[in-house]
Design goal:
209 residues, mainly alpha, Arc Repressor Mutant, subunit A, Tetracycline Repressor, domain 2, 2 domains, HTH_TetR, Tet_transcr_reg_TetR-rel_C_sf
């Protein structure tokens, strides 16, 4: 039976996913956010016209890359938000250690790409916030909200508390890894996380009794 005019081939989504995978691997390289549309097409093994057929523009392609990174990270984000790991101190320590582990296994590269592509860009900046930065902050909000409800942490603006918990860690990890600060101003990251957690708890933990 002839394909209806305007409909997509049966393998359209499969090929689109293949192209997206190839492009993702390129943009996660240290200079990936600067790759041109033509270079991304070459990496994917197709013409510029074909890549444009599947994604439209370079901007739309990079936005879809960030959305795909979000989709791939959903199981980890769900665990970060809801997995039970004891009282507040142990729970938040687990959360920060999980962030560190994820950062070392690709999350850091994803954030570096999103920041490089998004800073100063009216479209890609909000995409980075929505697809990569806010999901991590919202996972922290969910975890903090549970400990507040259980009376372990003081009532507060939970969004502000999530920013207090997450953002210094993200800056520290960017400093050491993506910005190569470990070579000129090394930091004991594990000790930093522990000190940061203690400072956070001094501000937010409910005193026993």
């Amino acid at each position: 039976m002839a394909r209806v005019k305007g409909s997509r081939n049966a393998d359209y989504e499969k090929e689109r996913a293949r192209l997206l995978e190839a492009v993702c691997q390129r943009v996660l390289a240290p200079d990936g956010a600067q790759a041109s549309f033509r270079e991304l097409a070459e990496v994917a093994g197709v013409s510029v016209a074909t890549l444009r057929h599947y994604f439209g523009s370079r901007e739309a392609l990079l936005a879809e890359v960030m959305a795909d990174m979000h989709r791939r990270g959903l199981p980890h984000l769900l665990a970060a938000a809801t997995a039970l790991h004891g009282p507040a101190r142990e729970s938040l320590r687990w959360f920060l250690e999980s962030l560190l582990m994820g950062w070392r296994h690709g999350v850091g590269s994803a954030h570096a790409f999103g920041l490089t592509a998004g800073v100063g860009h009216a479209t890609l900046g909000p995409v980075y916030v929505t697809e990569l930065l806010e999901p991590t902050l919202q996972a922290a909000e969910a975890r903090l909200s549970r400990h507040i409800a259980e009376g372990e942490l003081r009532r507060c603006d939970v969004r502000h508390a999530a920013l207090e918990l997450v953002c210094p860690v993200v800056m520290g990890l960017l400093h050491q890894m993506q910005l190569s600060g470990a070579s000129c101003r090394p930091l004991d990251v594990e000790r930093f996380l522990e000190d940061h957690l203690e400072t956070f708890l001094r501000a937010h933990a409910v005193s026993p009794g």
